[in-house]
Structures are given as structure tokens and as C-alpha cells.
Amino acid sequence: MIITVKKEAPQQEIDKLIQGFEKRGLQVTLIHGDNYNVFGLVGDTAGLDDKTIRANPFVEEVTRIAAPYKKANRLFHPQDSIIDVAGIKIGGNEKIVVIGGPCSIEGANETLEIAEAVKDAGADMLRGGAYKPRTSPYAFQGMGTEGVLAMVEARKQTGLPIVSELMSADKLDEFVEYVDLIQIGARNMQNFDLLKAVGKVNKPVLLKRGLANTIEEWIMAAEYIMSEGNQNVIFCERGIRTFEKYTRNTLDLSVVPIIKEKTHLPIIIDPSHATGDWKLIESMSLAAIAAGADGLIIEVHNNPECAWSDGAQSLKPERFAEVIRKGKAIAQVIGRDM
Ligand code: PEP
Ligand code: MN
Questions:
Q1: 225 CA → ligand 2 middle, Å
Q2: How much is the pLDDT for 46?
Q3: Which residues of the chain have pLDDT under 70?
Q4: Which pLDDT belongs to residue 185?
Q5: CATH of 2-63, one of 3.30.70.1140, 3.40.50.300, 3.40.640.10, 3.30.360.10
Q6: Which of 99, 151, 241, 270 to mutate to test the pocket of ligand 1 (most atoms within 8 A of CB)?
Q7: N or C terminus of the chain: which is more exposed, having fewer CB within 10 Å?
Q8: Residue 45: CB partners within 8 Å, gap ≥ 6?
Q9: Model-level pTM?
């Protein structure tokens, strides 16, 4: 970290700053320039808060050299992490995984029908929301435990591991018992207590990007989980909020190479919530594969017109199968299986 201090800073202020940094175990080098004094700090600066340092009226500028994340940082973990979800490996140069299923779980029979359809299409895992984060409190809120159990039954029949969203830490035991991959939704990406809670268990976590969060904030959310002990984090880009209205969100595919450069964790793409429009799912899925994503999570429904949520962005099983068929060809071009 480099701290630029105004020339007129009294010596006692400079001494105070140096002592404060040294107390934290940091090595301090001071350069007296013509117009400024510059401090170079070497050591673990992750615990320093830039804004607090800036509060000192003699401080002109604070520049971070090292990223504030450690556990997720590729610098300290050069090889790709491969996350095992009930036997399915995600990341590295493993097979690109495809997760399909309804936005909301709507019943045991409905779930089983979709599970069989996505399995036939070639999916590796089943998705489905039992606890739904809805914008309106009057909209369907999810089937709760009954929905989770419907997924468990579908897993029993099809063998597909299941992913579902956890909205509150008080349901964590239920998820640890029944769910293979715990999803933290966009709206909870910075629910730090929830992140810490899933950090304490030994289940893989699918961490969606927040509606309007920077890549660094997103990686710091992963850091919350990892700093509690759970290293099994998979990122999921699901579009961010921009000024654009033709799509529900704006799919930021540049995050794929950036996440891979900055971290060692896998990243998958959710083209459904990113676009909000079933007509865009195929092209965005193929682009995600070409960009190097480790997987896709796609909403699929037998009868999207009657879906209890997100019908407009849900694919019918035949179209989902087509995405996988074309996706395999793109995967082959970049030297991966799907
Ligand atoms: C979902 O996957 O069902 C969902 C609600 O997604 P997001 O958190 O990305 O909006
Ligand atoms: Mn949805």
C-alpha cells in the first residue's frame, strides 16, 4: 500500500502514522519528496481500511497494490480449484457442467417431470427454488421444505444432484441435510451473516453476483465464506443492473476471464436471469462457453406460460436440449467437454 502525505504534515503526525502501521506488523518505508511525503507499506494490509486512513487530514491519497482478498486470490493458490458437488467436478479443465430446472419448485410430480426432461437433454444437475426472493411480498414465496423434499425425491429418481437457494441461516440445517449445492442469491450476496453461516459448513456454495456489485465486492463475498473455513465456492454471473431496458439485466461476460485471472475458483453463467428472455438463452449460453465458463445454470419448464415464476425466461426441454447440443460443439473448439 502506498500512502501520500502532504508536505506540510508536522513531524509528530508522520511519527504517529508510522507507529500505527508498525504496531500492525507492517514494514514502513518513508520517502521525502519535494511536494509530498510517501509511505510504502509492506506486509498484510488486508485489515487496513483505506477510508479510515483517508480520514487523516494530512493524507492526500491511498493506493492499494495488493488485492484485499487472500483465500480466493490466485496469487497464493496458482492452480485452479476443482469443486466436487456430489461427485460432479466443477472447474479446472473438467467437463463444463449444465444445471437445468424450474425457477420455482411447483410440486413433486412437476419437479420429477422436469428433472427427467433435463436429464434426458443431458443436464448434470437439477436446479429449483423452494425459498424464493420475490420483489413483491404478494408474489409466490416458494414451497419451502415441501419444495426441498420434492427435489430430494427427483434426485432419488434421476440421480441428478440438486441446487437450491438458501435465503436465511435458520434453514441451513435443512440445506446441509438435503441439498448438494447451496445457492446464495444475488440479493443476498452481501448478507454477511448468511455468508459466514455457509462458510462454517462443508457444502459447496454457488455464489451469485449481486444486482449491482463490483467484481471486487463479489470476490470479497467469497472471501467471507472462505475465511470461515469453507473453500468450496463457485461464482455465478447472473447479469447486473444497467440502464438497458431491452433485457432484464446486462450479462457481463468479461467477468469469466477476470474471475479466472484474479481467483482460482470456478465460475458458471446464468443466462436466464441475465437476460430475462428465453429467446436470448441459446446465444448467451454459447458465448459463455466460448468465454471459458465452467458451467451453465438455465431455467427450464415444461409449460413456461404457466410457470409460477420466471416463465418468460424459461426454456422448454427441447430448446434446452438444443442449447446443450450446440454447446458441446463450442466446448470442443476450446478443448473442453460438455
Ligand atoms: C434464482 O436463481 O432463482 C434467482 C432468484 O436468481 P438471482 O438471485 O440471480 O436473481
Ligand atoms: Mn428465476
A1: 24
A2: 85
A3: none
A4: 98
A5: 3.30.70.1140
A6: 270
A7: N
A8: 1, 26, 64, 66
A9: 0.95
